[in-house]
Amino acid sequence: MKKELFLLILPFICLACQGNQASEVEAETPAAIEIQDETTVGEDETTPSDTDFWAKFEQIRRENNLPFFKAAVDDFKVRATPDLKGKELTRVKEGADLEYLGEVSKDLTKVTLRGFAYDEPWLKVKVNGQEGWVFSGGVIFDDRAYPDLAKKLLYPRYKTLLGPTVKGKIVNSNHAFEDAKTERDFYTAYRKLQELGEEIDLALENRDPLENRLSWIGAGITGLEVSIVAEGTTFASFIDFNDLAAPAKRTTGTADDDFVLLARHLYANEYNGGGVEDPFAVYFLQTWDYGGNSLLGQGFHNQLLLEMSEVLSKSKLFEKEILECKERLVQDILKAEKIDGQDNSLANVHKELDAILNARYSVLAPEDIQSIEVRRKEKFELENYE
Predict the structure, then answer these.
(1) Measured torsion, CA atoms of residues 16, 226, 28, 230, in degrees rounded to the nearest 10
(2) Distances (CA, A) of 302 to 89, 101, 203
(3) Would 134 be classed as within a structural domain?
(4) Is 100:152 a contact under the CB 8 Å cutoff?
């Protein structure tokens, strides 16, 4: 499912209402992330303690772990009644905080936003001490903080945008995670989620992201995020492992918890707070649209190989997925054209490779070790990226 595409972070999407018609601007929402550190690391200085190794990402996650309810448009109108003819009470700027009062209008209003027909209710909010109504299509919010509202607003959109079949699979996928009682139930739901992501990508492949700002799609789907990628030319679905931590924790067994934690470490990228599947894992520094430099020498490869081995030593349930991750990591070691030189050195690169070879991690096949031994003797080129 994973595509080698450049993930663009689109800050906002604009909406302007005129009569019964409007244009849209929507915002990417930061993931609400919580992470646990449970693995144990050896004494080698290239593999610092687990507490230290992921510490710099924890603060980013904490900062992103704040529920929000905001205006997605500039000059966003707050009205006295829930309809387009309601008296205008005030206007708020794009990104302004709104206090949701928990009330949704019974009547729907039809508004076409960037070629997509919305037929949605109004939400009662409080702004600067004043209560009023805003059109739901012009609001962004943390779906984890308001799950019932997300489903109420988004399920009808899914049916309109993706068709009744895909909408039904979204509902079933959410129920599968809600109802999962064992680690194997979770695994089955996870595999179905991967298939669902592929179907959504297919349904959206002819949509122009510049005309159809649809980054809200993932908000109502447990464990899935839909982003605009490839220099803004297409949509792509990615697994949100932060979102899967809670359903994994509810099940019996720990194989699902261990796998989710491993994945959150694997995608602990600083720019988005980490934990969401990405074309470039944490051991790679993206420096241009479709590539960049390996971070070999900074401990990520060694740390992740250790964690992969530990997870597989406990359970083989996610063996296929973990071995795929291992293969990509090994290929980064073997085929990296340049190594990031910031706070790094050739001595650190050799030290990390030596640590990997000395540990002989169980996740590595004999041919992996042989290939890394050959690579250890070859030349590495460091590059400082400004």
Answers:
(1) -90
(2) 58, 49, 39
(3) no
(4) no
C-alpha–C-alpha distance, residues 291 and 33, integer Å: 26
Q: What is the mean pLDDT of the chain?
A: 82
Pairing of strands 88-92, 234-239: unpaired
Q: What pLDDT digit, counting tens, does each position of 171-180 carry?
A: 999 999 999 9
Look at the alpha carbons of 174, 177, 181, 187 in this order and tell me if their dihedral is positive or negative: positive
272 burial type by CB count under 10 A (0-12 exposed, 13-18 middle, 19+ buried): buried
| DSSP structure class, residue 87 | P
Specify the DSSP class assigned to residue 6. Answer: P
Contact between 178 and 247 (Cβ < 8 Å): yes
* Total number of domains constituting the chain: 1
Let me know if 40 is exposed, middle or buried by CB neighbors in 10 A (0-12, 13-18, 19+).
exposed
60 lies in which domain range? 48-67+143-383
pLDDT in tens, 260-286: 999 999 998 765 557 899 889 999 998
Tokens 């929000």 map to which residue? 68
Looking at the domain assignment, is residue 108 inside a domain? no
Q: In this structure, is residue 244 part of a structural domain?
A: yes
Residue 88 per-residue DSSP state? E
Whether 40 is in a domain gets the answer no
Total-model pTM: 0.77
| Pairwise CA distance, residues 346 & 341, whole Å | 9
Compute the C-alpha angle 367/371/376, nearest 5°. Answer: 150
Task: Give the residue carrying structure tokens 């530990």.
Answer: 310
Pairing of strands 339-340, 382-383: parallel
